[in-house]
Write a structure and sequence with these properties.
heterodimer; A: 375 residues; alpha/beta; five-stranded parallel sheet; 18 helices; 11 strands; B: 901 residues; four-stranded parallel sheet; 41 helices; 56% helix; elongated
């Protein structure tokens, strides 16, 4: 199962008491230590573990001394191996995926296992300035003593370069394009010039960057091909099986519902399963039984969206309905999630209704509810 | 184990189609320089060996053995450039060393794999053996000669299970067992995946091991590089011997026979060529050949084996066919990759990624040398993480995905198709013996008494007759195979579905076409089935697949239908252009009806057609907005075509007990097809953004179908023609609504509609009139002269339906569209004909005039009428009470004309 970053945070919370959400290297310190002790394979410079041990840390396993390593990422083994091999060959790693595919989670654990520190983090937003990636100035110092290394406030990436650590950039595609470009020189030359001082910071062996991005969102700044070329890309897939996805959705919905003080709805599981089925079928472009192909709508239909559809359905049922989650509560939300492009997606959705939903056993209510809101 | 140590034959155990094995075999042959080379394969092929030396022979090719009397029963031994057997064959030919094939003769293999009842029982009708095979093929993926596939597995060419059809019961289940040795060895070595283990230990070893600058650590240090070319064979033979000690013959009785025969052939070869002969065979057989058995015991074993008359030839093969997913291939998932491993002189990883980069660049992906460098590094890093000696295909694919294609699988699919499997197509020299397809065709031709003639000849086939049906099937199948012996011609008389006309002409080059088509199968039926399935998968346009479905029905290829239907449903689902869908539907519906007529099971077809119709219903309204005149005209054609098709389909569907197989009974949502179509038309007719032409057409179709409530058409027309609308749009509406040859009558008979048109036309502003004129002219030009004249007269008479036309008393009230009063003389003129039509004696009416008041006329005809039905009084009373309807007006006229006479 693809662990959702937020869901697994709960486990970590229990483990480490004080902090609301301790860092991976703290929460799993024991496992990391056991791995380091058992690991006799060659390690790249400044790596805490060998690539093999990093892969084991993420995928789980049992060590020779009997220590059980819990799986952090339950998904294709191949992907983790590619990610680790990428970092080992000194290439920057780009984790792509739609919301809810554990990009951040994987990136944090990779950084924790490789460098023992997952805190060198640049959180990408539309307002991320260049200084957040390179360095800033302590203006009091600057005014008092003029430009000097003392007046320089290094950013996370700069620190990672100097210390040979793994830096993380979250939501790379949300960062404005001109700021993204800062990374290009940095990744290809492995130096960060400081023109104000006539100096530069050279990356030490062991420095690397893990970036995460959502490539299917609208309104993001696409990566330039120059930047993309500097990364090896790993696409994290959505949950592989319907059961996993239903499970994720159900758990998250329950948590959110709890937060919103929504009463638990009877029959909820059936409807959740239905929503997940619809999402998966439209996303995969085919029915679950593999008999009929379908067009896919332009939206991402991520697990996260399925969660929000069900949550809003629950709210409708609780406040305006009889408390039972019914197809009618979900129909409008589904329509909104699927039909992002009013022209093309509407046809996709109606075709789906007419060719698949209409003839499915036990889906008549759902069909009617959807027909009603689709008009 | 008797390896290179001098005495005894050199036993080279290989994995079929392993490039590493192939390299090793070549090295071993170079080193021992044997006096003869014995290869696992049918001994009948010995005489075909020289053909392999010819320039025109290019692997991949296959040895094809087939029973002379039953070409459908065949076995293939595919050989690629990287097959050890092929390498050994070529080495022997290059060095002038004799070659012998030593496996069990195909005559026995074919006889044993066939069901006992079948062997050549005279002139069997061509459908019988063929159909059986065709069904099997249907179960397989793309199964042409399933007979061939099972035959091949019987002869042990495949080393692992491939997903072919479960063939006949006695067809060997060896595949599952045959993989066992590898799996057992791999598991002994602690590997879960036998394929990967073999690749690591043997294939990559061969790739890196033969040359000094091998590309990496050689995992399994089985002896020094090239120091002893025979060491790996010795090691493998030893391992196999251990396995055979445990597993015996692997549970497969045929193996004992085959190995006995191999031993006998080996014995004979040693007598002929001395002890230094080399044997290239599956590693599994090595222990059996090395073991000692007496010649007599082996002969005893082989005594009394069944036998059929067999012919062998070389046929061209392709990499795709070697690939496992082709269904009857050799079970090699990645022939292109193997070929690359075999051909690459060094640095297979770098060369492979360079190839991949070139391919992607040709397809306009921005891939630079820097990408290749990084991909190589990643692949090697991955191999290290995965504890593999060298990057294999899995690592290379991962590297390409991560570095070159930014995580996307699309370029990877391209690489898989073009490189991993590859397009390689073999070639066979001219002199190769005829393919079985030709023989099969000859046989069928004789049965059906169709002689190939160079001159053109026309034949009429009556499909109600069995022979003619078979002929039609044959000709249709041949057309599918691109052997256009017959061309369908237009029937001279009668276009019934049971009659076909063909123009036959046998051109000499058709023989070449037959040879080319031989690649698809050994019988006409099997080949046509495979070809149809392959065509369906390759077709890009929806209409092509629909046409193919129709052809499959005509050619009676039920086995190909599921594949074609699937392709059809898939294309339809993904095709976003309603035009394509609408274009495909009529042909499909025709096919459904055709299937019904011929008694073919068209249920699957019907389900697909219904699905297609639903997609059109959904897609049509959005597609009808924002169109220019041309687009609207095109869609109008589609609208008409769909309308016709829906009517036919509804008819065909209603005939069935259960309309759609998997529709839940009593599903509340399932309205009948016609209702749904009417709803779509209603949407179209009422939507303002739809061009007038289409709105008008939809309204007309609704009207014709009786779906417009009273006055509905009038209301729609009034809306469309209201002054606010652009005149051209309104003219388009008129064209759509009353266009077509029969539109004139509509206007003639419904004065309200005519009045609306008339009123609108007089209101068109002068400036717009010239724009409108061509449209109207086009519309009205289609009517026949009579309708045009009537319309003209009606319009000249001035606005109809005005109050003053109504007043002429109830008896004279005009029918809509007619002038006031009755022109009795003209009405009387039609009476004689009317009498004839109704079969009423003419005088009867004249005498028995039901005028107001009881006036039963005397005379014979009155009596005649009394005998008929009803009493004249009834009629008369009715007439007196109600007035006006034309039917009632007739008798009145009658009276006068009668008097006039």
């Amino acid at each position: 199962m693809t662990e959702n970053g937020t869901t697994t945070a709960d486990g970590a919370r229990d483990a480490a008491g004080e902090a609301l959400r301790p860092h991976a290297e703290v929460a799993f310190a024991q496992e990391l230590a056991a791995l380091a002790a058992a690991d006799d394979r060659p390690r790249p410079a400044r790596w805490r573990l060998s690539p093999w041990a990093v892969a084991t840390y993420l995928l789980g396993g049992t060590l020779a001394d009997g220590t059980v390593i819990t799986p952090k990422y339950v998904g294709p083994r191949r992907l983790v191996e590619v990610a680790v091999a990428t970092l080992a060959t000194d290439r920057a790693l780009l984790l792509l995926g739609v919301p809810g595919t554990a990009k951040t989670w994987v990136s944090e654990h990779l950084a924790a296992a490789v460098s023992g520190d997952s805190t060198l983090l640049v959180q990408g937003t539309a307002g991320t300035p260049e200084e957040a990636i390179r360095y800033g100035w302590n203006y009091a110092q600057l005014l008092a003593h003029g430009p000097s290394r003392d007046a320089l406030v290094p950013g996370p990436v700069m620190r990672a370069m100097a210390e040979g650590m793994t830096a993380r950039v979250e939501e790379l595609t949300r960062i404005p394009a001109d700021v993204q470009d800062t990374l290009i020189t940095l990744l290809s030359e492995k130096t960060l010039p400081i023109p104000e001082l006539g100096q530069e910071v050279q990356a030490v062996r062991g420095f690397n960057v893990i970036a995460t991005a959502n490539d299917r969102d609208r309104g993001v700044n696409d990566l330039s091909s120059a930047l993309r070329r500097r990364f090896n890309t790993v696409v994290l897939p959505l949950p592989a099986t319907p059961e996993e996805e239903v499970d994720i959705v159900a758990r998250r919905v329950e948590q959110i519902g709890h937060g919103l003080h929504l009463p638990p709805a009877p029959r909820g599981m059936d409807e959740i399963r239905r929503v997940v089925t619809v999402f998966r079928e439209l996303r995969d472009g085919g029915t679950a039984d593999g008999r009929t192909k379908l067009k896919s709508p332009s939206g991402t239909l991520s697990t996260a969206e399925a969660i929000s559809v069900v949550t809003s359905g629950l709210a409708l049922a609780a406040h305006f309905g009889d408390g039972v989650l019914r197809p009618a509560d979900l129909a409008a939300g589904l329509l909104g999630a699927v039909v992002r492009d009013p022209a093309a997606d509407r046809v996709v959705w109606q075709e789906y209704l007419e060719t698949v939903v209409r003839e499915r056993d036990g889906w008549q209510d759902f069909y009617r509810a959807c027909r009603e809101v689709s008009g | 184990m008797n390896g290179a140590s001098g005495a005894g034959p050199v036993l080279l155990g290989v994995r079929h189609h392993g490039p590493g094995s192939a390299r090793a075999v070549r090295a071993a042959l170079e080193r021992c320089a044997p006096s003869a080379v014995l290869i696992e394969g049918p001994p009948e092929a010995d005489e075909l060996v020289p053909l392999a030396a010819q320039e025109d022979m290019r692997p991949p090719v296959a040895l094809l053995a087939h029973a002379v009397d039953d070409p459908g029963r065949a076995a293939f031994w595919p050989l690629a450039a990287f097959s050890p057997e092929w390498v050994a064959l070529r080495w022997a030919l290059e060095h002038g060393v004799p070659v012998r094939f030593i496996d069990l003769p195909a005559a026995h293999t074919l006889a044993m794999t066939a069901p006992e009842s079948e062997p050549g029982t005279g002139p069997a009708p061509e459908t019988r053996p063929g159909t059986g095979r065709g069904m099997e093929a249907a179960a397989g993926a793309a199964g042409e000669g399933e007979g061939g596939a099972s035959g091949a597995s019987g002869s042990g060419e495949r080393t692992d299970p491939s997903g072919t059809a479960p063939s006949r019961t006695d067809a060997p289940r060896t595949d599952a067992l045959r993989v066992d040795p590898l799996r057992a060895l791999a598991e002994a070595a602690g590997h879960g995946d036998p394929e990967r283990w073999w690749e690591d230990v043997i294939e990559h070893r061969g790739a890196g091991g033969d040359r000094p600058n091998g590309d990496g650590p050689n995992g399994d240090g089985a002896g020094g590089d090239g120091a002893d070319a025979l060491a790996p064979f010795a090691a493998l033979a030893e391992a196999m011997a251990e396995l055979r000690a445990v597993y015996g013959d692997g549970g497969h009785p045929h193996d004992a026979l085959r190995e006995a025969h191999m031993r006998l052939r080996l014995h004979a070869a040693r007598r002929e060529f001395g002890d230094r002969v080399a044997v290239v065979c599956g590693a599994w057989h090595v222990p059996a050949l090395a073991g000692r058995r007496t010649v007599t015991a082996d002969r005893q074993l082989l005594k009394g084996l069944p036998k059929v008359r067999t012919a062998l030839t070389w046929v061209p093969w392709t990499h795709r066919r070697l690939a496992r997913r082709s269904g009857y291939g050799a079970g090699i998932a990645s022939p292109g990759w193997y070929g690359h491993l075999f051909e690459a002189p060094d640095r297979p990883v770098e060369r492979w990624l360079t190839k991949a980069a070139r391919l992607l660049r040709d397809e306009d992906y921005p891939v630079s040398s820097a990408h290749v460098i990084e991909a190589v590094r990643l692949a090697e890093g991955l191999a290290a993480v995965r504890d593999r000696p060298l990057p294999g295909l899995a690592e290379l694919n991962d590297a390409v995905r991560a570095v070159m294609s930014a995580g996307s699988d699309v370029p990877l699919a391209l690489i898989h198709d073009r490189l991993v499997v590859g397009d390689a197509l073999g070639r066979v020299p001219e002199g190769a013996p005829a393919v079985p397809l030709q023989r099969d065709l000859d046989r069928i031709r004789r049965t059906l008494r169709l002689t190939p003639e160079a001159g053109e000849r026309q034949v009429e086939l009556d499909l109600r007759k069995e022979t003619d049906t078979a002929r039609s099937h044959l000709l249709h199948r041949l057309r599918l195979l691109d052997i256009p012996w017959g061309e369908p011609a237009r029937s001279r008389a009668g276009t019934g579905t049971f009659r076909e006309t063909w123009r036959l002409r046998w051109e000499p080059e058709l023989a070449v076409r037959v040879a080319e088509a031989g690649i698809w199968g050994t019988t006409v039926l099997g080949a046509a089935t495979t070809k149809a399935a392959a065509d369906a998968l390759a077709a890009t346009a929806l209409a092509d697949v629909t046409a193919l479905a129709e052809r499959c029905l005509r050619a009676a290829l039920p086995a190909a239908l599921p594949v074609v239907m699937r392709a059809l449903a898939d294309r339809a689902a993904l095709d976003a252009d309603v035009g394509h869908l609408a274009h495909a539907l009529p042909a499909l519906v025709r096919a459904v009806r055709y299937g019904d007529v011929r008694g073919t099971d068209a249920a699957a077809l019907r389900a697909v057609a219904l699905g297609l119709a639903d997609r059109i219903f959904v897609g049509l309204p959005p597609a009808c907005t924002g169109l220019d005149a041309d687009g609207a005209a095109e869609l109008r054609r589609h609208l008409d075509a769909t309308h016709g098709a829906v009517a036919l389909l509804a008819q065909a569907t209603e005939g069935q007990a259960e309309p759609v197989p998997h529709r839940p009974a009593g599903g509340a949502a399932a309205e009948p097809l016609r209702e749904r179509w009417a709803a779509v038309l209603g949407t179209l007719a009422g939507r303002d953004t739809v061009p007038g032409l289409l709105r008008g057409r939809a309204a007309r179709l609704l009207l014709d179908g009786g779906r417009l409530a009273d006055g509905g058409a009038e209301r729609l027309m009034a809306q469309a023609l209201s002054p606010g609308n652009r005149p051209t749009d309104a003219a388009g509406w008129i064209e759509g609504f009353v266009g077509g040859p029969d539109g004139g009558l509509l206007l003639v008979h419904d004065e309200r509609l005519l009045a609306l048109v008339d009123g609108w036309l007089t209101g068109v502003p002068d400036a717009a009139f010239t724009d409108v004129l061509p449209l109207l002219r086009r519309t009205f030009a289609e009517y026949d002269a009579g309708a045009r004249r009537t319309l003209g007269e009606l319009v000249r008479r001035g606005p109809v339906g005005a109050p003053d036309h109504r007043g002429a008393g109830s008896a004279d009230a005009a029918a809509p569209g007619f002038g006031p009063g009755l022109d009795r003389d003209r009405a009387a003129a039609v009476l004689p004909t009317l009498h004839l039509l109704l079969g009423i004696p003419q005088h009867g009416y004249e005498e028995g005039d039901p005028a107001p008041g009881p006036a039963p006329g005397p005379g014979p005809s009155g009596a005649g009428r009394g005998e008929g039905h009803g009493s004249p009084q009834d009629n008369g009373g009715g007439d007196g009470a109600t007035a006006g309807p034309p039917a009632m007006a007739v008798p009145q006229t009658n009276r006068r004309t009668g008097a006039g006479r």
